[in-house]
Design brief:
Membrane-bound Lytic Murein Transglycosylase D, Chain A, Elongation Factor Tu (Ef-tu), domain 3, 3-stranded antiparallel beta sheet, alpha+beta, about 230 residues
């Protein structure tokens, strides 16, 4: 029986949204971890408000006020050069760049750092669109001339809530459109059914200029038809 090939974890880096997009722009870079994380910490919390009730025998019934974003923390090792020849210093600089606004977003007067997504095979609960909340790099090995050869990076990703139906400020307009970020396992029919409750996937294909409806890629942003597109 052939030995299974080890799947490497990666950090995908996307351009922030432009114009009316609610999802990220195109994939701009990717960091492949030579060593998969030994441990991941995933936190998801909710908010409840508890009001004082003088006549309650024990305590008042809390009121649910919202769901907080997922927060993913991990420590990753960057060693020597990766498969693309990028040095440790270059990859750490890429991580640090995810904490500052991109040139394009500053030009559009909508400053935003890149958006990111952690991927590791079919590990879906830790794979979500996020921003990089912090980077701490500890350099542990150097060449004779002072070039860093290994760094242990502690990074934190905080989930970015995607716009859902009825939450877009322009959703009252019949011409308003939403977007969907493609994930592994998506197909145009499944996206159409989940977003509009119908099987009219060809309308999505036409809106996005897709000629082969079987080919959509993870990370791709699809515009979804608004009410006006159905008339």
């Amino acid at each position: 029986m052939p030995e299974k090939k080890m799947v490497k974890a990666t950090l995908e880096i996307y351009a922030p949204p432009t114009g009316g997009q609610s999802g990220p722009g195109g994939l701009t870079d990717q960091i492949e971890f030579q060593f998969n994380p030994a441990e991941l910490s995933l936190v998801k919390e909710v908010s409840w408000a508890r009001h004082n009730a003088r006549l309650a025998q024990h305590t008042s019934v809390p009121e649910f006020t919202g769901s907080r974003p997922r927060v993913l923390a991990m420590s990753v090792v960057l060693d020597d050069k990766d498969t693309k020849g990028k040095s440790v210093d270059a990859r750490v600089s890429t991580l640090l760049g995810c904490c500052t606004p991109t040139e394009g977003s500053r030009f559009d007067d909508r400053p935003s750092p890149p958006w990111v997504r952690f991927r590791w095979g079919g590990f879906e609960s830790v794979s979500f669109v996020a921003f990089l909340g912090g980077v701490k790099a500890t350099y542990t090995r150097f060449s004779a001339d002072g070039v860093p050869l290994r760094a242990v990076c502690e990074i934190t990703l905080e989930e970015i809530g995607m716009t859902t139906a009825g939450q877009n400020p322009t959703s009252g307009s019949p011409s308003s459109r939403r977007s969907h970020v493609v994930v592994r396992g998506d197909s145009l029919p499944s996206v159409a059914f989940a977003s509009t409750g119908s099987t009219q996937y060809r309308a999505i294909a036409e809106l996005n200029g897709i000629t082969d409806v079987s080919k959509i890629e993870p990370g791709q942003v699809l515009l979804l038809p608004g009410a006006a597109d159905n008339h």
